[in-house]
Amino acid sequence: ESQEADAAQDELVLKVQRLKAELVLFKxxxxxxxxxxxxxxxxxxxxxxxxxxRRIDITAKLCDVAQQRNCEDMIQIFQVNxxxx
Length: 85
What we know:
- The chain has 85 residues and is an all-alpha fold.
- 98% of the residues lie in helices and 0% in strands.
- The chain has one helix at residues 2-84.
- The longest helix has 83 residues, at 2-84.
């Protein structure tokens, strides 16, 4: 029985060592995957920020154009009214 117990204990020690090695490998793989995922998330966030900035710029330009057009329309209205007077 003593020999069987020693053999079983040796087998368990080997299994624990193998599991520890697999755990180290798994943690390394997960760390790499998480790093890649973080990088992709940051890249997407930067693209979204750039898109938002572009949209804000476009909106501001459209507002400027609309305001300029309104001013020109008002100038024409005044010119028509003053010419008719």
